Amino acid sequence: MPTPVADHWAIVPAAGIGARMGAAYPKQYLPLAGRPVLLHTLDRLLISPRVAGLVLALREDDPYWPTLGYAPDKPLLIVTGGDSRAASVLAGLEHLAGHTAPYTPVLVHDAVRPLLHPADIERLCDEPLDADGCLLATPLTDTVKRADAAGRITQTVPRDGLWTVQTPQRFRLDVLRAALSDALAAGREPTDEAQAMEHAGYRPRLVAGRRDNVKITVPQDLPLGECLLAAQAGEGV
C-alpha cells in the first residue's frame, strides 16, 4: 500500500467564547480526560499522515493558549480570528494562501470536536476533490419535530434525506476562500463552510462519518466525551 501523502492543511477556528457551556472560560480550554479539549482536537488532526500542517485562529490576546506549551512536530500557524466562525476561517485561509498553492485541500474542523477518528479523516481525504468539496455528516435517525414559540409541536418533519453535519469540511483553498469572502461581503453569516459554498452555487457532497465525532457544546458533553475517549482508546486510537 502506498504511503499517504501529506497534501492537506487543517484550519481550526478557536476564537469563540462558548457561551452555551456557561463555564468561566472558553469551552475549547475545558479539561477532557486531563487535557484541554483543544489539544485533543489538534492532536487528532496533526497525527494524520494526510495533514501537512495546521492554522489555528485564536481571539486577540487569548490568555489561555500561551500557557499550554503545545509544540507539535508539524507546522502550526497562529492567526487572529474574527467575531464569527466564518471570519475566523477566512482569516486562516488568507494566511494559508501565502504559504501554499491555491488548489491545496483544506480541512476545516471545529475546535471542540476532540474525538475525530483517524478512519474518518482517511475516508474524507480519499474522496475525489472537485470544486464542490465534501464534508463529514451522519444520516438523521431521530424523529424530528417543528415547534412554535410556546414549544408546542406544529409538525413532524420527514427525516428522509436529512443529515446532521459534522467536521472536518473539505474544500479547495481558493474556492472556499472566495465563497466565504463573498458571503461576508454580502452581509451573510454562514453557520458552516458548506453553507457559504451553497450560497456560492456549489453542492458539497456528504460523506458518512462516525457518530462518536461529537461536539462539546453543553456541560453534559464533557463526561460523554470522556466515555467516548475511553472507548476509542480500547480500539487503539
Strand content: 15-25%
Structural class category? alpha/beta
Topology as a string of helices (H) and strands (E): EEEHEEHEHEEEEHHEH
- Assembly category: single chain
Task: Give the topology.
Layout: E1 8-14, E2 31-32, E3 35-36, H1 37-46, E4 51-58, E5 76-80, H2 85-97, E6 105-108, H3 118-126, E7 134-139, E8 144-147, E9 153-157, E10 163-172, H4 173-185, H5 193-199, E11 205-208, H6 221-234
Helix pairs in contact: 2-4, 4-5
Report on the structure:
- With 237 residues, the chain is an alpha/beta fold.
- It has a single domain (8-234), classed as Spore Coat Polysaccharide Biosynthesis Protein SpsA, Chain A (Alpha-Beta Complex), CATH 3.90.550.10.
- It is 28% helix and 24% strand.
- The chain has six helices and eleven strands.
- The strands form three sheets. Strands 5-4-1-6-10-7-11 form a seven-stranded mixed sheet, sandwiched between helices. Strands 2-3 form a two-stranded antiparallel sheet.
- A hairpin with a 5-residue loop joins strand 8 and strand 9.
- The longest helix has 14 residues, at 221-234.
